[in-house]
Amino acid sequence: MLNFVVCEISGKQYKFVPGQPLDVYWEKGNKDINANVLLISENGKLKIGQPYLKDKINLKMLEEKKGKKITARIYHAKANYRRVTGIKQVMAKLILDVKKPLD
């Protein structure tokens, strides 16, 4: 039985537990994601990659939404220059697809 998996998506590491969705920063596009696996805990035994394992994990996208707005303020002293910009980064709610086995 799979306990948890640590994988890398877009340069960040996330811990996935079967049946629990997780919000991840994501670029728009794919609905099914194959992520690089760093660590697998199965029946209390750990498999650790150097840096990755040969296994790939299948993640299923439940929904795609925009995250919290991040604002940036630019200010130049003595020049009367002020500017405010903002961005909402795309987030995806992913879940570990237990129906598909590890590749």
Please outline the helices and strands:
Blueprint: E1 2-9, E2 12-16, E3 22-25, E4 32-42, E5 45-48, E6 56-76, E7 81-96
Describe the protein's architecture and organization:
- The protein has 103 residues and is mainly β.
- Strands 1, 2, 3, 4, 5, 6 and 7 form a seven-stranded antiparallel sheet that branches.
- The two termini are 16 Å apart.
Structure summary:
By secondary structure, this protein is mainly β.
Features:
7-stranded antiparallel beta sheet; mainly beta; 103 residues
Low-confidence stretches: none
Helix run count: 0
Tell me the total number of β-strands: 7
- Order of SSEs, N→C? EEEEEEE
Overall structural class, as computed from helix and strand content, comes to: mainly beta
Coarse shape: elongated
Helical content band: under 10%
Taking the alpha carbons of the first and last residues, their distance comes to 16 Å
